[in-house]
Specification:
This protein is of the alpha+beta class. The chain has helices at 44-66, 108-121, 123-126; strands at 7-10, 17-21, 26-29, 71-85, 88-102, 131-138.
Length: 139
């Protein structure tokens, strides 16, 4: 199945610019403050890492539900490892650490099955050329 998604960017000579997303939200953006941008706006690096983190959560919960695991809460931290590869800056790895609250205890092997299926099913992380490492802590 082929689908297209689109976004629009408007920039008037200074930051923040405006990113208009297909899902109906407008977001102010800038380059990262580490590279001279303004704080308080999303950066491309924030969006890249955030999209991986959000997509992983959405797919994780859907897969868990399909396996009869009731997820009550999900909180995660994603850390993107930036490096220079062939003279260009590039994310080379994302580490996601999730804390998941379940309605009832679940075997670690079942949670690992959810993680493995999520890695295969997450559109965003599957579209990235880097390593994805995941650690899930359940409560």
């Amino acid at each position: 199945m082929r689908m297209d998604f689109e976004s629009f960017v408007e920039w008037s000579g200074e930051y923040p610019g405006i990113l208009s997303c297909q899902n109906g939200v407008d977001i102010g953006y800038s380059l990262p403050s580490e590279f001279g941008g303004t704080r308080g706006s999303i950066s491309p690096e924030d969006a890249f890492l955030g999209s991986a983190n959000v997509c992983f959560q959405i797919v994780f919960v859907r897969i868990a539900e399909s396996l009869g695991i009731d997820v009550l809460e999900y909180r995660s931290r994603a850390v993107g490892k930036l490096d220079v590869v062939d003279g260009a800056r590039k994310f080379v790895r994302i580490d996601i650490e999730a804390e998941v609250k379940l309605s009832s205890p679940c075997a670690d092997s079942r949670i690992q099955k959810v993680v493995d299926a999520t890695k295969r099913g997450c559109l965003v992380t599957n579209s990235m050329d880097l390593d994805i490492a995941v650690k899930v802590i359940t409560a």
